[in-house]
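Marked as duplicate of an earlier ticket. Keeping the data here for the record.
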Amino acid sequence: MVFEINKRKIPVINNLSFFLPEKGMYFIEGKSGSGKSTLLNLIEGLLKPTKGYIKINNKRIDTLNEEEKTSFYKNDIGILFQSFNLFNDLTLKENLNITSLIKEDIDENLVKRYLFKFRLNDKLNQKVYTLSGGEKQRLGLIRSLINKPKIILADEPTGALDEDSSITLIEELKKISENSLVLVVTHNHDLVTKYADGLILFLDKGYELINVLKDNPNESLNIIKNKKKRKERIKFYLPLLIRNLFKNIKRNIFMSLSIVFSIVITIFSFSFYININNFTSSLIYSFPSYNVYEVYRSFSSSINDSSLSIEKKEKIDNIELMNFLKENNFNNYIIKDNFDYFFKGNTITIDGNTYENISFEPSFELNDNEVIVNKAFVSSYIKDFKEGITLNFKSENEYSAYSKIIKDEINETFKFDINFKIKSINDEFNFLSTPKVYYSYSFFENYLSLSVAYNFSSLENNTKTYLDLLKTSKNNDPITSYSSYVYIDEKDFDKFNNFIKNEKNIGDYRFYNDALTIVSSFEDIINTLFIALIIFIIIISLTSIFIIFLLTFYSYLSSKKERAILFLLGSNKKSIDLIYVLEPTLIYLISFIFGLVVFNIIKNPILNKINNLLTINLSINPSLIYILVIFLIYFLIVLFSSLIPLIVSKNIDIAKELKEE
């Protein structure tokens, strides 16, 4: 065996060849640094010889694959360490339980006899770190003998013991050697003299074999017998998992808080988005004029030396508009004139208080001189609302038109003074809402048909009403407000709304609906907010992955010695790794439940603030399926984050981690 240190090759064991029988007590003796422990590590399979080989049962130890090596440690050998290599922060009983779980073929009565023999039966629930050195070594011996292996390997087993404890230990090993092979590394020649059946002595210049076979007299002479190969199962080491949870309590709390924060934000964000989408889909119907569109032809002209442009509007001829709607398979509609011109420069008086330029919108559901006002109107202009309050409407507008009779302009002053009764308050969506009055279109149309334009009537010697002037005016005349109203029947509303959203369908026609504009603006804000939340969720999820990865990786790296012990006890890698996957998984399960509790605690206070801010009345109740989907997504994130360190970590150097101090 040659070690390379600073590019220098240093031989430690050279040209050593021997055979050992199936039973007996054999010692490896020599000075410190002579290679005793190295030889034992070679026999244990922890080191690979740079030259030559070691066989057990005619099978080379250095060529065993991972599964074969696990079986070798589990079934064939028991190892007794000078520095014990126990799980110090577990109890004596938990140490033995873990070993029993790994070894499987356990003689429980034998274990009980050993506990009584070594006076450890009354210390089963005592933490190992509270035991004396002799008690720890006796526990180590019980652990190595727990499944009656055919080979016992002991490296300086008496080095940390007093004389009485040393004698007790060696005599027990001697008794065991009657049926098994016991190989002991020591520097105590008295033990060799008294107990050895054979000796491998490391000298300054070579080796001496005393009562050790130099040649194999019979190929059938095997140290161990072949055992039926079993499929390795994954074991669950509950004591180690619980110990890790409390041992890493600060890190685990930090990990848990990260997960809880992610869970709460995710559930709230998606629940809010899903519920508010369902909520906004019905908001449009809260407006009395939700299916009334202002329609006009739009012309854009650019301003010289500027990137700005001006939009010009023109009323579309009714027949042209009718044909357009029919061509696109819309039959349930009404085309009406726009009366906005007559509402310009208005004043209203309520309870003796006068206000100017209030927004009026038509309603095709109202009759007579009744009007409906929205909440913004009431909060701005009416202190104590009661049904039937009178609203006095006044408007005065100048109108000029060219007359062919006199070949000159004719001026007409429109004056209106109408009393409306406020029927009710409309419970419409109040986001970005301005004070509005919804009037009866049929009432005002009738009012215009009875209101005479005296200047035009006297000039043409024929009664002309304001409605007549509106209907006979040109499409670019201001009295038309450059537009018309299209009332879409509610059964065609969704279809029509989707149609006009595609501007390719409508050419230079423009359809404007104030209710849709408000709702669409709100949806845009919500979608923008949701995108921001998605980005935030991705960031906190990546942060959680990074935190879980770092904490798992740190836990994995800091447990090298513990994993080395489990490996030499015969545990397979999957069982060892399971501890470090289950720890964050269990934390996740606890955190998810806690996250649901936190979500339900903070849900209503936050939702109330959002409802007050957006003037809505939204509730959030995520479904079970939705909760399960989020649970599964974050479970996969945690699992992935936990597995990365196990995948990228290199195999530990067991010999180095368990090097005797």
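See parent ticket for discussion. The chain is about 45% helix and 20% strand.
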